[in-house]
Structures
1.
Amino acid sequence: MSQQRPSAEVIRRRRWVALIAAAAVIAVVVAVVVAVSTAASGSGAEDDHAAAKQRDQAQSPASRPISSVTATPIPVPTPTPTFDKAALSIDDPASIWVVANKSRALNPRTFVPPDLVYPDVPNINGQPMRQATADAIVAMFAAGSSEAGLQFSVQSAYRSYDTQVRVYNADVAANGQAYADTDTARPGTSEHQTGLAVDISAVPANCSLDACFGTTPQGQWLAANAWRFGFLLRYPADKVDVTGYTYEPWHFRYVGVELATEMHRAGVTTLEEFFGVPGGTVYP
């Protein structure tokens, strides 16, 4: 028995159904593709956003780890000790700091130092001096020889009260009292009586006890280096009104290394100015 073929209308309907079904499938596929693509795009954007945020945080100073830095303490300067001007007496004639001048006579005026010795150096007048002065003279003369090839001698040192009477009277007799008072101390006011003062001359002799001694190699070396050994050029050329005496580049006074060093550091050249005591050219 032969089958009846579907009519043309049925065939046409079946084709439309097939087309509609295919279109539906295609629409579903497209929707799926679009959804997957959108999801992937969104995830990538989020990843990019997260990465950018991480970069920003990494670059932000607040987000960077703070390295451990130890603060360097500011050094506190050590205060320089103040020189004690009252450490030794400037009134006691036995003190190496005693200040003797026309306004400040020794007390007693007939003072005799307790430890007079004769140093082992050339000594023209054969006069003694205090032990500390002698030790410093020996060291200073040795340094002048080793450092500069210079030779020195002691011209005069300790003079007793009675010896100073003779020296002063001789100067007055030869030159008058007004002149004598400019270069020779009256008895009882002389530094030589303390055993701490030394008149130094060159070897061979050159400008001994004369202002030109200051221009000799020996005089120049002493002026520059005596402080190292505790000596003070006692009567500078520019301090006549202070010390009361004319320039004596040969007259050195022992005051000890501590005081001599402090005066050198401070740039003060007279005991009167350093200790703030009277001096001057006139006797009271």
2.
Amino acid sequence: MPGLSQPQPSRQTANCHESSSSISSSASNEEDAGESGPGEQTQQPLTLQWTSPSCPQSSVAHTYTGGPRGKKDNEASHINDSSSPLSVFLLYFAEIITLLVVETNRYYQDYIHRLDDGPSPEPDVTEAKMFVFLALTIQMGHGVRDKLTDYWSTLDQLYTPFYGTMMKRDRYLHILRCLHFTDNRNEPDRTV
């Protein structure tokens, strides 16, 4: 693997396995009478260049044996070199998002039917709302708050309009409460 070093000769390691490349950096401190006052020192700019490693490289242990394009055209004909990152993401996660939506709605409907006098029904979760829910959940990792409801707080020191703009707090909490990945009616009997 190529490394960075100065054009000057760099010290070699005794064992090739210790370091295949390195960055050697030092700057000479010289007095420059034209720009510095007496006794002052200036640093010269550091010059680096790519060099080949001094040790032979090991060969690759596993080689790729798939097709030349890396995908089967009949499985993802809509994915090509100009596809967006979102379309590639959906290739892998579209079924999971659909499963989340179906099972979350089923769980909520089962919950409502079990209650005699429950709350007014919430509208079903859509795939678009599930994407927003997941995006908000991921975004929460970038600005950690003490409580979940603090993301929707209107206090000056906590206010972040992004969360309230994307989804109302109660809707987010509803989806979180009902988030489900499987049908409870197909749950195995654990009493045996």
3.
Amino acid sequence: MQRYRKRTLFTFLALLSSLGSSLVANLSSRLHAAEVSDSAAISSSGEPKSDFPWRRNIVTTFFWIGQGGSSISATTNVASAWDAKWTADYGGIDDPARHVGFCPSRFAATENPFYVALPFNDVAFPELAKKYCPWYKTPNEANRYVSQCKGHWIEIRNKDGRVAYAQWQDVGPLRTDHASYVFGDDRPHDFNHAGLDVSPAIHDYLGLTGLDLTDWRFVDADAVPDGPWRTYGEQAVIYAALKQKELQIEGDWHPYKKSAPPSDQ
């Protein structure tokens, strides 16, 4: 146990030396500030410019990466409509019971924890995409199965006017072909009229409780203000550096490096 503690301390000190304590302190303070005072960043930025209309009073449901099926849908969220390794690429299961602030507590998310699902899949329905999606371009053969919707930013507003920003990463709730709603004037019709699925981070940031009504619209990436939806990448950088340094030290360290291993005789 004593050897393990020394090794852990050495790992941490080596990381600080390689990154620089001022860098770590700066990144940590920025992450903390984003979570405890992020509303100030929103209010100071004002209303972002967007050419896209609001979808108002949309029933908003709650889901997460790695979630199993439910009584409403047998679909699991281990994979997304556009990423067969979604859970692995994210870093793990985005369990809402295991969050610190807006991020998972047991790993650093390597993709944005502020993510949503909307009920249209451009890869599965390219003709509908051509008709409705304003930024869609007919792909070449090499990119036929690459989504042009994945990663697009949206702005979400709760009933109190609090705003969050998120990236479109999956398809749902329930439907996959509802382009006339996502890009047009139609309304959600199925089940409870849900038209937007949000991640645990958005759910908590906006204070949602159940089948809440929210407004949402598309926004351009350069119009997205600073906030916790931007700083997750810094956490991932620190975590990745920790893991890399730990693996490096493990490769160099051996319990008998300074002395020969004991003889079996």
4.
Amino acid sequence: MNWNASTIENLRRVFTEGFTARDIAEPLASFDTATATAEVLGLMNQRNFDVVGVRKDGVVVGYAEREHLCGSTCGEQVRTIEVPISDTAPLADVVLGLAESPRLFVRVLGAVGGIITRSDLQKPPVRMWLFGMITLLEMRTTRLIELKCKGDSWKQYLSESRLQKAEALLEERKRRSQNLELIDCLQISDKGQIIAKNEEIRGLTRMQSRRQAEQAVKMLESLRNNLAHSQDIISCDWGTIVELCKDMERVISGTEAVQQVLECGTHHSNLIPWANGSCDE
């Protein structure tokens, strides 16, 4: 992969425009303000809705929550929708919005017509988007380790058993006529160990200790594994997802120093997107 300005721009477009709120939003069921509360609750219980929209003159003007719905009509308990997001909003904005609120209302064609909750982040578009980010990070890390640890000197940071597993995988891939190097057969946890144990690399990040580095990579590995095996990514990996979205630009392109490393083969890097390191010459 050529890590040049054109590649970075293409990646930026894919990750910021390729997946949007529209891809995961659910239609917002809504009722006129005069609709009987019993009727609204009946549908909410039947479909397990926590929230419905409330319409006035055919337009959604607010919402009602099942746990607070009382009185004779649903309009008596209407709550204001503060700022709905556009259906074209990037997924990163959706995640950050859900970090602050249990739900987001989605504006479609100028009117509120959809809703997104954290459970919607379990859907395939979000999983593909997140897996793509982790793949990008891992690919960049692999290349940086190659540049930083000349002549396979990275081997010193791994146990004999981990090296043997990588070598066995390499032999299997060679048998299948795949043209790879040993470093291409390392697992993300192996690369994490290299980052954690190489003080020069770790010193370029905010992580002041080996433990911090190991924890950061462990978080990425957990998210990657849960994505790969279609497991729940919200209960255990929510913090990691939010951190990735807080710093999308660094996830996509790295710092200027990272770009210089990848383009020119120099020895500066910033491996973890939320570990902002210095880049002194």
